[in-house]
Amino acid sequence: MADLEKLVEQLSALSVLEAAELVKKLEEKWGVSAAAPVAVAAVAGAAPAAGAAEPVEEKTEFDVVIKDAGPKKIEVIKVIRQLVNLSLTEAKTLAETPDGKVLSAVGKDAAMDAKKKLEEAGAVVEVK
User: Fold this and answer.
1) 112 SS3 class
2) Which of 21, 30, 56, 102 sits 20 to 30 Å CA-CA off 126?
3) E strands within 3-118?
4) CATH assignment of the domain containing 68
5) pLDDT at 41 over 80
6) Are residue 101 and residue 66 in the same domain, yes or no?
7) Which phi and psi angles does 51 have, rounded to 5°?
8) What predicted TM-score, i.e. pTM, was given to this entire model?
9) Among residues 57, 54, 68, which one has the least CA distance to residue 121?
10) H-helix or E-strand spanning residue 48
11) Can you give the residue range of the structural domain that contains 113?
């Protein structure tokens, strides 16, 4: 076992480039590929996770939801009125409603922009 410990120490001292060169030489000498075990593991692991292998549709529509108006409620109401054409009373009600949807089914850019503006005003916001 002492020889194995010495070998481990020598391998640990290799740089990344030296280790990559060693891998290439071993692949040539033994006629194997270091990538093969990874591919086999991925294929073997794919059976239980077959549902995960299906292409996932990227979400294109988002809702901007106020979780809490925060301490600067007046500022949040102003931002709501800028984002959505609501009266002062409607914007106030929306700001005070937990999980109130400010915007519904908007693009990612619009949702993130609205979230940023509302958070800068002091609200706690979630994009769903």
Assistant:
1) helix
2) 56
3) 62-68, 100-106
4) 3.30.1390.10
5) no
6) yes
7) -65, -30
8) 0.52
9) 68
10) none
11) 62-127
